[in-house]
Every structure is written in structure tokens, then in C-alpha cells.
Specification:
There is one protein chain. With 134 residues, the protein is an all-alpha fold. The chain has two domains: 10-63; 76-134. 81% of the residues lie in helices and 0% in strands. It has five helices and no strands. The chain has helices at residues 9-31, 38-52, 55-63, 68-71, 77-133. The radius of gyration is 35 Å and the shape is flat.
Length: 134
């Protein structure tokens, strides 16, 4: 009769991770509204494309000279629009930071006034508390 094989705790944990890990990934991707299978397919398609490509073609592609006129890339209109949107966002955030700094200054002044008022009230209250305690 064959002896029963017992798994150690570590082996059980590793098997658990191998089974549950991908399931958790699929669930989280689905919950975030993404297609959980697409990144996996893309990953394996890229690997297979790299393997299918002939090494001679890769070196031929790498050694081709790019003309000087095409080296200088002009931005497409969508990139220009995106840059202008980002610049506008940066300007708005700078204005907001300036407003927040001014508001902080006003609040610091108010804190100083309240601390001075508190100090004066405590000075007035100290003699009264000493005389009533005797």
C-alpha cells in the first residue's frame, strides 16, 4: 500500500495563492470596470509577436537611417490641445494656491488676535481667582 502524502502548511499556502491570486485579480479588474482578460491577452500577443519576428529583420530595422527632415517631430493638434488644457489647469491651480495662501495669512492674523485677546482675559482673570481662593 502506498503511503499518503501530507502537504506542509507552506505548500498548502502556495497552492492557495496559485489558485486564489488570479481569481482575485480578475474580480478586482472586473469591479473597476476593466476587461480583466485584455491585459493578459495583450501580454501574450506581444510575446508571440516578438518570437515570430526574424532576428535578421530586427537588425535591418535597427540600422535604417532616418532622414533629418523626419527626425523633427511636430505635435499633432490633439497634443497641442492637451498641452493647452494642462497649461490652463496649472494656471488655475496657481491662482488657487495664491488664494489659499492669502486665506492662510488672514487666518494667522485672526489666530494672533485671538491669542492676544485670550492672554488679556487671563491676566484679568488671574487676580480675581487669587482673591477668591483666600
Amino acid at each position: 500500500m502506498a503511503k499518503k502524502y501530507k502537504l506542509t502548511g507552506c505548500a498548502r499556502f502556495l497552492i492557495f495563492l496559485v489558485i486564489v491570486g488570479p481569481l482575485v485579480y480578475l474580480g478586482v479588474s472586473f469591479a473597476q470596470g476593466e476587461n480583466p482578460i485584455a491585459p493578459i491577452k495583450d501580454f501574450f500577443n506581444e510575446k508571440s509577436e516578438l518570437l515570430k519576428k526574424d532576428p535578421a529583420e530586427q537588425t535591418a530595422d535597427d540600422t535604417t537611417e532616418v532622414p533629418a527632415s523626419t527626425k523633427k517631430k511636430e505635435r499633432p493638434s490633439s497634443d497641442i490641445d492637451e498641452v493647452s488644457i494642462l497649461e490652463a489647469t496649472v494656471d488655475n491651480l496657481k491662482k488657487r494656491i495664491k488664494e489659499q495662501d492669502e486665506y492662510i495669512d488672514v487666518l494667522e492674523d485672526r489666530v494672533e488676535q485671538l491669542e492676544a485677546q485670550n492672554k488679556s482675559l487671563r491676566k484679568r482673570d488671574i487676580p480675581a481667582s487669587n482673591s477668591s481662593g483666600n
